[in-house]
Design goal:
alpha+beta; two-stranded antiparallel ribbon
Length: 66
């Protein structure tokens, strides 16, 4: 399974979950193999950071339209 974060390059990844698409300027991904264990706490933190970043970007675009 691949989890892709569209703006992943802008996110901090202290637990180094990102292991794919590392050469790009914008997106990052996490490739998971069957049976592989993942740090669920770190994944939740990374997901929450991505949601917060996307929400902030959306609010910024909305403010520019006004």
């Amino acid at each position: 399974m691949k989890l892709t974060f569209a703006r992943g390059a802008a996110l901090e990844d202290p637990k180094q979950l990102f292991n794919s698409s590392l050469e790009g300027n914008t997106r990052r991904a996490i490739d998971l193999l069957a049976g592989e264990k993942i740090n669920t706490t770190a994944l939740k933190q990374l997901t929450r950071a991505a949601v917060a970043a996307n929400s902030a970007a959306r609010a910024q675009r909305a403010a520019k339209k006004k």
